[in-house]
Amino acid sequence: MSSTPIASKIIPKAARAHLDPTSIEYTSDKQRNAVAALVQEFTVTPQLLKDIKDNFIGGMQKGLKKDGETLAMIPSYVMGRLDGTEVGSYLALDVGGTNLRVVSVHLTGGGHINTRQTKYRIDESLKVGDAKALFDFMAVCVDSFLDEHEIVVRGDSQIELGFTFSFPVLQTSINRGTLISWTKGFNAHGLVGKDPVAFLQDAFNRRHVHVRVAALVNDTVGTLLAYAYNHPETVMGVILGTGCNGAYIEKIPKIEKWKGGAIVDEMIINMEFGAFDKERTILPLTMFDNKLDRKSVNPNKQILEKMIAGMYLGEITRNILLNLIDRRLLFEGNVSADLNQMWTFETAYMSTIEADNTPTLHVTRKILESTLSFSSTTLNDRQIVKTVVELVGKRAARLSAAAMAGILEHTGAWKQKAAIGIDGSLFEFYPSFDTDIMDGLEEVFGSEVRQNVSLGLAQDGSGVGAALCALLAAKHASKDASDN
Ligand code: BGC
């Protein structure tokens, strides 16, 4: 059991060991020019960062006006804030990344949370098979979790569950919605246009699992709620992991398309910002990004996500390396069988390569030779690989900064003390991702932003957040009942 997991952490991770491309001993002018061209293509200049931020704010405003815009700006039906005094026990099911997690969450008041969780790996075939089979698998996992943790449901009672389903879902109530599209390599058929909660509840009912889906939550919304439980000044929840997205607190009068009532004056908006710039008007897309997009299961969708998220950075890097190999500017024109396969260059390797501060880059060598089966590499090869990795990683962090700056400017939140809770492997493990984001924010707002805005790791926020959302749903339900 772990206690109070949603604390801001100082992350003990490595910093980027920057390699200055001008210090490389190039093997030819052609190689030097190729690297210089990549540096130019992948650098997000301060001016471009600001232009993207402005364009992003325009997208937010459009999405708040009507449905169907590129930035979906989905009202989450989560109203009101938590203050840490809440108590209760809930179950959470978190689906949307590599693993599925079942979490039992016990809120003991005073900002304290106890959690127990089990992770289950989702087989690739389930991700692209029949949706019903995927939801049956979810019900089986929850059932076995209840067994494993000896959680007994008596009589006709049901356990309340918060369901974190981290895909673009247009919500129609706190526990209803329709899937707009799949992302992150999922493509199970039969769910687009339908309600994931109905599928899950049906799977529970068929298996006689006594669980009621009380709330449907995006992971960004969960992260925001979880972080706010002990950081009341939280204004935003962000995921920088397999996918990317953000949620923030909006004033209801600014959500022009919102036709529902309101018990308070603000609501959390799930932005679905990974979909930004579908029109390809502002993002600095390269041929390597285009190749990745064309070969993805969702071409022409999630354009910003494909430049930022952990699922994709390794593949962009692989595309660049292959191009340099084909031009005989790297590894003497030879490719290893492993690097020749899609998705083999993992984003986790990039984290390791970024942190490699050895003079001979022997950590990078280990990845290339032991993991990716290159028979030998030269120092020059390794330096080029490291430079490419740095370019792709830094661009991702600076594009994340542009999006976050857009939200901070739109809400004016940067002018006062504001906390941003962030979850996901990139933010947690990727060297200097946090400092790159902060540098980007400073370029937009000036140094004052460092005093006001803090970025913190909201580890496992989405699971806890789903439980908090189930709690808020119960609060609203009892308020509605007493009002009637
Ligand atoms: C999904 C979002 C989610 C994000 C992070 C994206 O692919 O569309 O709903 O918040 O990934 O998990």
Offer a few descriptive terms.
484 residues, globular, disordered N terminus, binds beta-D-glucopyranose, 6-stranded mixed beta sheet
Quick summary:
This is Phosphotransferase. One of its GO terms (molecular function) is fructokinase activity. This protein has 484 residues and is α/β, with parallel strands linked by helices.
Q: Secondary-structure element sequence?
A: EHHEEEEHHEEEHEHEEEHHHHHHEHHHEH
- Give the ligands present: beta-D-glucopyranose
Largest sheet: 6 strands, mixed
| Low-pLDDT residue intervals, each spanning 5 or more residues | 1-11
Q: Could you say which overall geometry the principal axes of the C-alpha atoms support?
A: globular
Average pLDDT, all residues: 93
The spatial strand order of the largest sheet comes to 1-5-4-3-6-9
**Beta-strand content estimate:** 15-25%
Taking Cα atoms only, what radius of gyration do you get, to the nearest Å? Answer: 23 Å
Secondary-structure content class = alpha/beta
